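Q: Got a minute? One more chain.
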Amino acid sequence: MVAAVVAVGVLAQAAVWWLISSRRVPFWPATSATFAILGIAAVLVRAPGSTDASSLVVGAGSGVALYGATRIVVASLLERFPSFAASVSDVYGRSQEVPGTVVWVLTLAIAIPGEELFWRGLVVSELRDLTSAAVGVGLAWFGYVAANAVLRNLSILAAAVVGGALWTVLGSVRDVGAAVASHLVWTSLMLLWPPRAARGKVPS
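A: Always. Here it is, folded:
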């Protein structure tokens, strides 16, 4: 049952990303609805373990560090690779599909918790049980990157590779609460102070 939910969930995310990349469905509502369903399904089939204050602090601190690293790396890539700049602009430009306050609610209250509950709460745990700790973490990270690659956006793919690695490790070494805190802090900072290529396209 759990394995089936994992498989269906991964395929569902990939399918929604494909529809978004094809401009058939709006980015923010589609991702939020998808991750809300995946998060609920994850909790129903395998309740996440408890978290504590130290995990939340570690997660939040790693989110700040990831944001700083993201700004440095993105700044170095924007001048060299125009296609990367376009992909960054595209992600934030889609925020104009809905009002800015709705973007914040959909992303921070629904999409990110659901995404983390599914990927770091369910997928990591299930794959570790089926294989081993190291192999399970590696497979979960690879699956996350592969699912996000379907969106065909370089900035999202880069975030999945680097951020996905961090959140997968946090979910494995600490708990899903640490991964949620890290992802929330990083995304909040990216929305508040986005890369230069996205300025003027951020929700207000």
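A: The radius of gyration is 16 Å.
Q: Perfect, thanks.
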